[in-house]
Amino acid sequence: MALSLFHRDLGGKGLPHLIVLHGLMGSSRNWQTLGKQMSGQYHVSALDLRNHGSSPHANEMNYAVMAEDVVAWMDDQGIDQAILLGHSMGGKVAMVAACHSPKRFSRLIVVDIAPKNYFWPAHRQEFAAMKALDLSTLNSRLEAEEILEKEVPSLALRKFLLTNLERKEDASWTWSVNLAGIYSVIDLLESNPLVATDRYLGATCFIIGGKSDYVKKEDEGLIRAIFPNVKLTLLPNAGHNPHMDSKDEFLSAVLSFTEQTKS
Q: Which DSSP string do the residues of 105-160 spell out, in sequence order?
């Protein structure tokens, strides 16, 4: 059953729709700056996928139902067709949505993820560290950063994970993400959600981080088999988060692709 997703309207009302989907442990807030920059050309909406951000939690979590959530959100908003952009886990959701409901998406942009199986041991370590954090005794976000440092040595990553830590009205702390629910299906989220017969024939762009190992040269055949009308764009100085690592180049790649492929 589709859930009613939370979204942020980042501007551009009256222009063609662009829907943005975040990655694992992210949310719509990660896309506010870039979304507003794209709102001069598109009506940009950034969604919180189920079990993330301000969207509802649910025990069921797989790519098929997450794609259904996106299409149901479009129905609720009265959006017949949109450009769909997804990063990492959101990229897999976007791929499934485009393949299952191709007429709803005029163009597809997938950011640093491929239609294949992955194994993310670092995510398991991060989840374990977050779950082990005793929120009942926590005094501040800084204290949480310090506690997580041993298991999550990257300050940038700790700050990213802790965007999911929220303070309630009674001053206690809570996770906005469904930690237990997501961790219980991590194997499924790592897997390839597409099958050999899946196809999306619309204009597609894969934006790849040159310093990331998520999309490799040998993955090109897998991508072209499912997305034959694809453009591969490498951002050499970017890691797994090209929209953060190379903001200007990323924005240029998105707008160049969408403008060039307009019918």
A: EEEEEEES--SS----HHHHHHHHHHHHS-GGG---HHHHHHHHTTT---HHHHHH
Are residue 21 and residue 140 in the same domain, yes or no?
no
Amino acid at 147: I
**179 in helix, strand or coil?**
helix
Q: Is this model's pTM higher than 0.85 or not?
A: yes
Amino acid at 166: E
Q: Kindly report, residue by residue over 208-230, the tens digit of the pLDDT.
A: 999 999 999 999 999 999 999 99
DSSP state of 46: E
- Give the range of the structural domain holding residue 169, as residue numbers without chain letter: 121-186
CA distance 186 to 225: 26
Rg (CA), the chain: 18
- The answer as to whether 248 is a domain residue is yes
pLDDT tens, residue by residue, 76-91:
999 999 999 999 999 9
| CA separation for the pair 210, 232 (Å, rounded) | 12
- Taking the C-alpha atoms of residue 30 and residue 165, their distance in angstroms, rounded to an integer, is 14
Q: 211 in a domain, yes or no?
A: yes
Cα–Cα distance, 218 to 162 (Å, whole number)? 35
| Cα–Cα distance for residue pair 127/130, rounded to 1 Å | 5
